Amino acid sequence: MRPPAARTMSSQSLQFDPHVSSARKATNSDLKHHKFGNLPLSTSGPQDCALRGTALLATPYFNKGAAFTTKERKEFNLTGLLPQNVQTLDQQVKRAYDQYKTRVDALAKNTFMTSLAIQNHVLFYRLIQDHIKEMFSIIYTPTEGDAIQNYSRLFRKPEGCYLNINDVDRVLHDLGQWGSPDDIDYIVVTDGEEILGIGDQGVGGVLISVAKLILTTLCAGIHPNRSLPVVLDCGTDNEALLNDELYLGLKRPRVRGKEYDVFVDTFVQAARKLYPKAYIHFEDFGLANARRILDRYRPSIPCFNDDVQGTGCVTLAAIMAGLHVSKLKMEDMRVVVFGAGTAGTGIADQVRDAIAAETGKSKEEAAKQIWCVDKPGLLVQSHGDKLTQAQIPYARADAEWEGKADSDLLSVIKEVKPHVLIGTSTKPKAFTKEIVQEMASHVERPIIFPLSNPTRLHEADPKDINDWTEGRALIATGSPFPPVMYGGKEYVVAECNNSTCFPGIGLGCVLSRTRLLTDKMLVAAVKALAAQSPALTDPDKGLLPDVVDVRDISVHIACAVIRQAVEEGLATVEDIPEDKAMLEEWVREQMWEARYRPLRAVSKDNASRQAKGEMGTAGGSE
Question: Where along the chain is a divalent metal cation bound (predicted)?
Answer without folding.
Answer: 283-284, 307
